[in-house]
Design goal:
Elements lengths: L1 H32 L7 E4 L10 E5 L4 H5 L12 H11 L3 E6 L26 H15 L3 E6 L2 E2 L2 E2 L6 E2 L13 E2 L4 H18 L5 E6 L6 E2 L3 E2 L13 H14 L7 E7 L4 H10 L6 E6 L8 H14 L4 E7 L17 H15 L4 E4 L33 H6 L8 H12 L5 E5 L6 E7 L5 E7 L5 E6 L7 E9 L14 E5 L2 E6 L3 E7 L1
Parallel strand pairs: 1-19, 2-3, 2-15, 3-4, 4-9, 9-12, 12-13, 13-14, 14-15
Antiparallel strand pairs: 5-8, 6-7, 10-11, 16-17, 17-18, 18-23, 19-22, 20-21, 20-23
Keywords: Signal
GO molecular function: hydrolase activity, hydrolyzing O-glycosyl compounds
Protein name: Glycoside hydrolase family 5 domain-containing protein
Length: 526
């Protein structure tokens, strides 16, 4: 009996100790994930960057109807386009980059006089153009704004009509050209692009076309060919880009278009800051906006590195606004893949990059790209662009069993769809940016004042610890009710439903909050 009684007492003591240990562990977990620590880091909403935003955008290139539906082996259908339309509307995207290529509407030179366009020779009814119209219709229905990006001159035309084929007449004569090359026929190039823009705006009524960019990444360098369009390197080659833009500007003015569209120029990669500088200096009179693409920032990149990179771009832009025309992560694998594309953490990273670019003075950012799609109906699986906010039809991924087996449905959204949608929904054109200093390398924050005088606070925590902060804002109309939105792993919506507010808080002068590790937190004033 004594032995049994001792055993019972010992068992009870051990049990109580175990329960205390579990309780303590649970308490620590709660503190780590839910409770707000007392050591808030104070940050004051101070001065804005002084830049009115162009907007938060995406690239939506017009290949769904021309290059995807023409691949019967994939099984996509015309009515699938409704999925794209519905999601764009829900996301509230206001800014779009849209690719065009000159052979879609002028496969052969209309005549030898660039000052007299023979409109009967332009193929505005081609299937490639019909696909473009679908994209522009979608954007116009949603009150979006379009930058048309003429990517370059095709070396091997591959029209759905079948003819003509071969090198486009605008191509320059340099050997070893990549799939799209530069031009030395500036007047003909100006005629080609201006005729398109005039037709789209004045004949088709696409007033959503607000800007043009001649040549995508013209600083791109191909061995034994050189840069697509040389600029700012007189020892290597005379300038091509600036003379081309000046010819384009003169043509747009002559056709009464220059007051209808802005010139968004440079469009250089992140490896050529001097290209941006040269464009800004040589084209002061022609430039409305300059832009650069970047895929150099990753999960360990500090906030300061991103901010300083953008500040340098702003300096090089010589007083013109600077926009980030493409961005993604640095986990690149060729031009069509990024290794983190399906990871939850990518949503946090993209938000943190965007915050820092805006804090550095960018006039906006555009994500590459909205959807997975083929750019050529005859392309191999490795050529399919797989950097979208959502995927293409499941069957198209059969060549990669690992990806294919993980897909549950056609047009499945990726996690960063939910995160990036928070930016497109709540940061609007003409907003002002007020950078927040959180004293962290991987936790970024910014305060946005939209044109309607409503505030939005955006935080991205790329670290492995929670960040307690106290936000102080004594500026006009900052007090009031705020809806709270959270991008948190394990709590994302189902399907393509957007993140909804989890609570409403009242802010008067300041507020204390904890930004959970590996998460995005947004406060939106009601």
């Amino acid at each position: 009996m004594k032995t049994l009684k001792y055993f019972k007492q010992t068992f009870v003591i051990v049990l109580l100790f175990s329960m205390m240990t579990i309780s303590s562990a649970c308490s620590n977990i709660d503190e780590g994930y839910n409770r707000i620590p007392s050591n808030f880091y104070p940050t004051q909403v101070k001065e804005s960057t002084g830049v009115k935003l162009v907007g938060i955008g995406v690239e939506l290139d017009p290949h769904f109807f021309s290059q995807n539906l023409t691949r019967p082996e994939d099984g996509s259908k015309a009515e699938d386009w409704n999925i794209v339309k519905e999601r764009v509307k829900k996301m509230g995207v206001q800014n779009f980059r849209v690719m065009v290529q000159p052979h879609w509407w002028e496969p052969l030179n209309d005549n030898d006089d660039p000052n007299v366009a023979d409109m009967s020779k332009f193929t505005f009814d081609s299937q490639e153009m019909q696909s473009l119209y679908k994209v522009l219709e979608l954007i116009q229905e949603n009150n979006g704004e379009v930058t048309l990006v003429l990517w370059g001159c095709p070396v091997n035309m591959d029209l759905i009509a079948g003819t003509p084929t071969g090198k486009h007449f605008l191509c320059d004569s340099r050997p070893n050209a990549p799939w799209v090359c530069g031009t030395d026929k500036y007047e003909e190039f100006a005629e080609n692009f201006s005729v398109l823009v005039k037709y789209l705006i004045e004949t088709k009524g696409f007033t959503c076309v607000k800007a043009v960019t001649p040549f995508n990444e013209p600083d791109s360098h191909t061995p034994n060919y050189g840069r697509t369009m040389w600029q700012g390197e007189p020892d290597s080659h005379p300038d091509q880009y600036a003379p081309m833009v000046k010819a384009l500007d003169a043509k747009f003015k002559a056709m009464g278009l220059r007051d209808k569209v802005e010139f968004n120029l440079s469009d250089n990669t992140d490896g050529s800051p001097n290209y941006l500088k040269s464009c800004a200096e040589a084209l002061q009179a022609e430039t409305n906006l300059l832009n650069t693409h970047t895929y150099k920032f990753g999960y360990t990149t500090s906030n300061a590195d991103i901010v300083n990179w953008e500040k340098n771009n702003v300096t090089l832009s010589s007083g013109k606004k600077h926009f980030v025309g493409e961005f993604g992560s640095n986990q690149t694998s060729g031009s069509s893949r990024q290794l983190d594309i399906d990871k939850y953490e990518r949503g946090v990273l993209l938000t943190r990059i965007a915050i820092n670019l805006l804090n550095g003075g960018a006039a906006g950012v555009s994500y590459w790209s909205l959807i997975d799609q083929y750019y050529s109906r005859n392309g191999s699986y490795s050529e399919m662009q797989q950097l979208g906010l959502w995927k293409y039809v499941k069957k198209a991924y059969e060549p990669d069993p690992e990806i294919y087996n993980a897909i549950k449905e056609d047009y499945e959204v990726r996690p960063h769809y939910y995160a990036y949608s928070l930016l497109t929904r709540f940061i609007k054109k003409n907003a002002e940016v007020f950078p927040l200093d959180l004293n962290e390398n991987l936790v970024a924050g910014t305060a946005i004042l939209n044109e309607n005088n409503k505030w939005v606070y955006i935080f991205a925590n790329g670290s492995e610890h929670n960040k307690p902060v106290e936000i102080i804002n004594d500026k006009s109309q900052a007090n009031g009710e705020y809806e709270v939105y959270k991008y948190v792993e394990g709590s994302l919506p189902t399907g393509d439903n957007l993140i909804q507010s989890t609570e409403t808080i009242n802010i008067k002068d300041k507020t204390s909050l904890s930004i959970a590790r590996s998460s995005v937190l947004i406060l939106v004033q009601k």
